[in-house]
Write a structure and sequence with these properties.
- It is a single chain.
- This protein is of the alpha+beta class.
- 40% of the residues lie in helices and 11% in strands.
- The chain has eleven helices and eleven strands.
- Strand 2 and strand 3 form a beta hairpin.
- Helix 7 packs parallel to helix 9, helix 8 packs across helix 10 and helix 9 runs parallel beside helix 11.
């Protein structure tokens, strides 16, 4: 007999109790018969129950077969049901405990020294001695590494191609936009699955932070999403050395990512006016030590207006073959 007192009935608590049982008995049972609790069974059924993803993964890692008891059928696990009142009356009654750890230590000692050494009414043997001589050799060895209890969820891929898993944010492949993926959060990594296929693996990050894989983003948006300052500076320098210097000056702040939109606007001016004009405007702005993208835009607009004002008037236009004089287009009032 092994007792594991607990205040919770979560999947993590059930796995913790099983791990403690394997350490106590010195082996892993090949079959486990759980009750139809939600921590193990998500959809109870007498013939085909559906198990919790976390507990199913645990059973697979320990090579355990799950044989869930039927609904409202205590005869499927009579030995366990019979042990409960025995523990209540022989261990808990008239006892005072300090905390949960104290209860567990004393319960383990009671299982070994009292329940394990009594003479069983059916077998007429001491349960602990019979287990060690006949049953312990049939168990699988206890795993050396503890089980990393994962947390499963089904988040939706949002418009920024990221999903939220236990508060941190992780990127997902952009073709899955608007779809739901299966997320497995372990202590060291977060795995994303779609239709049973592993699509992305991220390192576990603290709450409030994000992990982005540039390959998950649509082509052309990687720089904006990842806030790659070096790449932004390189893009600006590709249009001209002065433009690169001007962009680097804009980003030279304690919070450079807050100025990235200004650099994007500067690149938009290059696309609209051409790199030569923007290069000249940036040179004039640097001479006056002014870092303002809106000023660059105004300078380019004023230069265009000045060029239009200084342009010579158009030469006399030669009338075309089918041109008509103004008199021919006049309308005359008709008399009635």
């Amino acid at each position: 007999m092994f007792g594991w007192p607990t205040f919770a009935q979560t999947t993590e608590a059930v796995i913790e109790g099983l791990e403690a049982a394997w350490r106590y008995v010195g082996g892993v049972f090949p079959v486990v018969i759980p009750d139809s609790m939600e921590a193990v069974v998500t959809a109870a059924n007498n013939t085909a129950p559906r198990f919790n993803d976390t507990f199913l993964e645990y059973a697979q890692s320990r090579d355990i077969t799950i044989d869930a008891a039927r609904i409202r059928t205590p005869t499927d696990k009579p030995r366990v049901e019979r042990v409960v009142p025995s523990v209540q009356s022989n261990f808990f009654r008239s006892e005072t405990f300090v905390d949960l750890d104290d209860v567990r230590r004393r319960a383990e000692r009671w299982c070994t020294e009292t329940a394990g050494m009594r003479v069983h009414g059916t077998t007429c043997t001491r349960p602990l001695a019979a287990f060690r001589t006949e049953e312990q050799t049939l168990l699988a060895p206890v795993p050396a590494d503890p089980f990393d209890v994962p947390r499963w969820s089904r988040p939706k891929v949002h418009r920024d191609f990221h999903v939220e898993v236990l508060r941190p944010i992780y990127s997902a492949p952009h073709p899955l936009l608007g779809r739901r993926v299966a997320a497995r959060a372990g202590s060291k990594s977060v795995n994303l699955y779609f239709k049973g296929e592993l699509v992305r693996v991220h390192p576990r990050t603290p709450p409030g932070q994000r992990s982005t894989n540039p390959a998950d983003l649509p082509k052309g948006t990687e720089v904006h999403a990842t806030r790659d300052l070096d790449q932004v500076k390189e893009m600006a320098s590709g249009h001209g050395p002065v433009i690169g210097v001007y962009a680097a000056g804009i980003l030279d702040t304690p919070l450079p990512w807050t100025r990235m939109r200004q650099v994007y606007r500067l690149l938009g001016l290059v696309k609209k006016w051409g790199p030569e004009r923007v290069e000249q405007a940036c040179q004039k702005a640097l001479e006056t030590e002014v870092l303002d993208v809106n000023l660059i835009g105004r300078m380019l607009q004023r230069a265009k207006e000045a060029a239009c004002a200084e342009a010579p008037p158009p030469a006399n236009v030669v009338e075309g073959r089918f041109a008509r004089s103004a008199s021919e287009l006049e309308t005359k009032a008709t008399r009635r």
